[in-house]
Design a protein that fits this description.
Blueprint lengths: L2 H10 L11 H23 L6 H4 L3 H24 L9 H22 L2 H9 L6 H21 L6 H20 L8 H26 L3
Length: about 220
């Protein structure tokens, strides 16, 4: 077959995704797992697992918090994936990220509205608002390093945006780890202070993206 014929056949045929190198998915899973384990180890050293975690896990509010953070993890991971695939559709990503946020904020606003006036401040500020965002940001650092390393092996083109997505994914996973320690359950607290903690690694990722992800 002539070279020109081969090129024409490939151009006119169905889209064929490039096959990843053998073992690439296992290495990616290992890299991400190492980042998450690093975050868990950091949480265990700095904070420890909540002594009454078993009791908290019996409350619906605990699972609402975990479900919210897990949804953000999935949305952020999907955004990171697509931003590393040139030509992948990204139009739906803002809605994918915004949907769990809007639902949590609506729930938080409803709870605040129905709560007695004297309890509203406690529901929003909780007892750990000073430390919560900083702790989530700190726990996200091993995961951020792992996600950026994975992204370097792919082909991101919008480097700052890809770095921001990596940071948000790291922050969401770190928030999930932080749930093992955090005593706060109020939707208004989680919807604000947890998200603020996730935005710190998002900003770090956006700053590092053009330098770390250039190829």
């Amino acid at each position: 077959m002539k070279t020109d014929d081969l090129i024409a056949m490939l151009a006119s045929g169905p889209d064929v995704a490039a096959a990843p190198p053998p073992g690439a998915r296992w290495r990616a899973a290992g890299t991400l797992s190492a980042g998450v384990l690093g975050s868990v180890a950091l949480m265990a050293m700095l904070l420890g697992v909540r002594p009454n975690l078993e009791q908290l896990a019996r409350l619906p509010d605990f699972w609402i918090k975990v479900g919210f953070v897990a949804c953000l993890c999935l949305a952020a991971w999907q955004a990171s994936r697509r931003l590393c695939m040139p030509g992948a559709p990204t139009r739906a990503l803002p809605l994918l990220l915004a949907l769990p946020l809007l639902l949590m904020w609506a729930l938080g606003a409803l709870i605040l509205q129905e709560a007695p006036a004297g309890q509203r401040a406690e529901l929003f500020w909780g007892a750990t608002w000073r430390s919560c965002p900083l702790l989530i940001a700190t726990l996200s650092l091993p995961i951020l390093a792992a996600v950026l390393r994975l992204m370097r092996q792919l082909a991101p083109t919008r480097l700052r945006l890809a770095g921001a997505a990596a940071g948000f994914a790291a922050g969401a996973l770190a928030a999930l780890v932080y749930c093992l320690h955090c005593p706060e359950l109020a939707a208004s607290f989680v919807g604000f202070w947890y998200v603020l903690g996730m935005l710190v690694p998002t900003a770090i990722g956006a700053a590092l993206g053009p330098r770390v992800l250039a190829w």
